[in-house]
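User: Could you go from structure to sequence for me? I need the amino acid at each position, not a summary. C-alpha cells:
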C-alpha cells in the first residue's frame, strides 16, 4: 500500500485529483480510536476546485461525450494496514490512499454506546473536520443494530424499542453525533442489516418500526442537522430482496432506501458477479421511488467462501459496469475495504457480532480489502480505481 501511495504521489495518479477518503472505521465494533491530529497532519488540504477526474479519463477531452448529470458519490473505507491497534501514521496513509484511489465520500460509523464517551465524540469531530475540509460528501451511520446485535447499555437491553428510556438514549446519541459532525452529514443511516435482527426477533418488529419512525423524525428536525439531510434504515441485500415484514413500513418512513450489498455474507459461498445486474434491478424494484444508498459493497477474496483475488476484481468491475446505466437512482456507494483485516482485528470484528473467528462470516468479512493486511496489492485495487474514475464527474 505504501508503494502504491508513493506511485500515486510521484506520477501514477496525482493525489489531488481525488477529493475524498472515507472515515477510518478500523474493523468494526468496539472501535479502535486513533487520534489523527490536526487535519493538516494528513498532508495537503486539497481544494474542492480540483477536477473530479483522473488524467487518463475523458473529463478533460473536449471531444468526449458529455458525462451523465446524476451524481454517484463513490467511497472506500480506509481501514489501515497491519493488525492490532493502528499507528496514527498508518491511519493517515490509509486515508490518503483512499483519497488517491478516487474515493469522494465517507460513511462515518459509530454505535450509541461509543458516542456516550467524550473520547469517541471528540474522535468523530476530528474525523469529520478532516474530511469535511476536503470537500467530502459525508454520511453517518448510527449503528444501534449491527445485524443481530443491539448496541444498548445493559439497563436498556430488555426494554421495548419504543420505550421512553430507549428513545431518550438514542436522541442523546444523535445529539452527540450531530454536535461532532458540525452539520456536515448529508445522509444518516439508522442501523446496519437490521433485518437480521428483526428476523431473529420478530416480536420486536412493531416496536422497532415505531422507534425508527421517531428517530428519523428526530434526525430531520434536529437543529444541527445538515440542510436537506436524508435519513433511512439500513437493510442487507437479502432483507431487500426477500423483504422482512418490516421492510416496507421502514422504507416508507425513510427518505432513501439504504442497503449493504455483500451478497452471500454469512453463507458458505459468496455471491457471483454474474448476478449483479439482476440484484441491482431487484434493489431498484423494491426501493420503490426512493433513491438508494449502498453503505457497504464488496466481495471476499477468501477461498473459504469460494472467493479469490481475481473473482473479487471481477465483482467490482462488474458492479461498476452495472451501476452506470442505473446511476440515476444510486446516489451513494461505499466500498469495503482498503485492507483485509488481520487476525486480531478480524477477531474483534466478528466476536462482537457473535460469529466464530474461523467461520464463513469471518472469512468473508475479513477478506474484503483491495490490499492484504500487509499492504500488498490485490487486482481489485485497480478495479476500484477505474470504477471511481468512471464516476468522478457527476
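Assistant: Here is the amino acid at each position, in order:
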Amino acid at each position: 500500500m505504501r508503494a502504491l501511495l508513493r506511485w500515486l504521489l510521484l506520477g501514477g495518479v496525482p493525489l489531488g485529483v481525488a477529493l475524498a477518503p472515507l472515515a477510518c472505521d478500523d474493523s468494526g465494533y468496539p472501535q479502535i480510536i486513533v487520534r489523527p491530529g490536526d487535519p493538516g497532519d494528513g498532508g495537503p488540504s486539497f481544494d474542492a476546485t480540483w477536477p473530479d477526474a483522473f488524467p487518463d479519463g475523458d473529463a478533460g477531452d473536449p471531444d468526449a461525450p458529455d458525462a451523465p448529470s446524476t451524481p454517484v458519490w463513490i467511497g472506500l473505507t480506509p481501514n489501515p494496514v497491519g493488525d492490532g491497534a493502528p499507528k496514527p501514521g498508518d491511519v493517515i496513509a490509509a486515508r490518503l490512499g483512499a483519497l488517491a484511489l478516487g474515493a469522494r465520500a465517507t460513511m462515518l460509523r459509530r454505535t450509541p454506546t461509543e458516542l456516550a464517551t467524550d473520547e469517541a465524540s471528540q474522535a468523530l469531530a476530528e474525523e469529520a473536520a478532516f474530511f469535511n475540509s476536503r470537500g467530502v460528501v459525508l454520511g453517518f451511520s448510527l449503528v444501534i443494530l449491527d445485524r443481530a446485535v443491539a448496541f444498548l447499555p445493559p439497563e436498556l437491553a430488555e426494554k421495548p424499542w419504543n420505550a421512553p428510556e430507549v428513545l431518550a438514549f438514542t436522541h442523546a446519541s444523535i445529539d452527540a453525533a450531530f454536535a461532532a459532525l458540525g452539520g456536515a452529514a448529508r445522509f444518516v443511516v439508522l442501523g446496519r442489516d437490521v433485518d437480521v435482527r428483526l428476523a431473529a426477533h420478530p416480536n420486536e418488529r412493531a416496536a422497532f418500526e415505531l422507534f425508527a419512525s421517531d428517530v428519523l423524525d428526530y434526525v430531520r428536525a434536529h437543529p444541527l442537522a445538515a440542510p436537506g439531510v436524508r435519513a433511512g434504515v439500513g437493510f442487507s441485500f437479502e432483507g431487500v430482496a426477500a423483504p422482512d415484514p418490516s421492510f416496507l413500513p421502514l422504507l416508507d418512513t425513510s427518505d432513501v432506501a439504504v442497503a449493504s450489498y455483500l451478497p452471500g455474507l454469512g453463507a458458505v459461498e459468496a455471491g457471483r458477479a454474474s448476478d449483479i445486474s439482476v440484484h441491482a434491478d431487484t434493489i431498484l424494484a423494491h426501493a420503490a421511488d426512493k433513491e438508494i444508498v449502498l453503505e457497504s459493497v464488496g466481495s471476499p477474496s477468501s477461498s473459504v467462501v469460494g472467493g479469490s483475488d481475481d473473482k473479487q476484481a471481477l465483482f467490482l468491475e462488474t458492479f461498476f459496469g452495472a451501476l452506470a446505466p442505473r446511476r440515476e437512482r444510486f446516489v451513494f456507494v461505499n466500498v469495503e475495504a482498503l485492507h483485509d483485516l488481520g487476525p486480531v482485528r478480524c477477531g474483534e470484528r466478528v466476536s462482537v457480532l457473535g460469529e466464530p473467528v474461523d467461520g464463513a462470516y469471518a472469512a468473508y468479512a475479513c477478506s474484503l480489502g483491495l490490499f492484504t493486511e500487509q499492504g500488498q496489492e490485490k487486482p481489485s485495487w485497480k478495479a476500484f480505481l477505474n470504477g471511481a474514475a468512471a464516476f468522478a464527474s457527476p
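One structural detail worth keeping in mind: The CA atoms of residues 57 and 390 lie 7 Å apart.
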